[in-house]
Amino acid sequence: LGDIRDVDAALREDRIEAYYQPIVRLDTREIVGLEALCRMRLGDEIVSAARFHEATKDVHVATALTARMLALVAADVRRWLEMGIPFQHVGVNVSSADMHGGALDRVLAAAFEREQVPLDHVIVEVTEAVYMGDGDPIVQRAIEALRARGMRVALDDFGTGFASLTHLLTVPVDIIKIDKSFIDRLATSNASKAIVDGLIQIARKLDIKVVPEGIETEEQARLLQAAGSVLGQGYLFSKPVDRQATTALLLGRA
Ligand code: G
Ligand code: G
Ligand code: MN
Ligand code: NA
């Protein structure tokens, strides 16, 4: 596993699946969106993306995996829209290879337009590691191109890169996803609490939405709500689940 050949085989044998984790309103726990996460089927086992992350450093594997995920996600969203589910948005994760490939906005637009899914339902999650230092102009242009087509951009794992705040000066983003490491220590570390409170304030003043990630306890949810966060994501609300389970969640029947 984690080997390029394993991911290649999974792609060829149609063993890549899209799982989804809900993003909820902290006050009502209503689902407002989803994050799509790729999984590999291996016999009866479902393997998480963390375990084949190494292979996605290969440009061809990363590109093929993104293409497959986009096709799966776009088809799922079309089904949910056809079912009349008041579905707001889905986040897709993209890799450094995708961002540097030069045509990411076209690839995404083509995938969703093929399923007649309007692009304003799409959020592109760009991980901080993709930025490397201060403002890669290629990444910046890629983000601008996505937004020009009506997609929204989220900075994923926000706070883990040493230039996090600098990005807010140079890159036009719609959403920041506060990294789980800050949420883990929210209730026990004054520094974590201060940083998270500060990020929520900064985001509000910049008209950027925040999604704290990795919420596992009611105490964390309460602290985040008190700090002014409207939304949240984490195991407290739901783990990532397959398409059928996601449909049940969206219909309120889970
Ligand atoms: O879902 P999981 O905990 O396995 O995710 C592990 C890591 O893999 C996370 O950093 C997540 O962002 C990344 N990841 C999950 N799904 C995808 C995907 O479809 N594409 C890319 N590029 N990364 C993904
Ligand atoms: O890097 P990225 O933020 O895309 O990673 C998302 C991954 O984090 C998902 O694969 C998901 O499995 C994992 N995750 C989401 N919520 C929680 C949580 O509450 N606790 C833990 N341990 N992992 C989570
Ligand atoms: Mn993500
Ligand atoms: Na994250």
UniProtKB/TrEMBL annotation:
Q: Which residues form the EAL domain?
A: 1-254
Domain of life, per lineage:
Bacteria
Protein name, per record: Diguanylate cyclase/phosphodiesterase
Say which species the protein is native to.
Sphingomonas jatrophae
Full-sequence range covered: 350 to 603 of 621
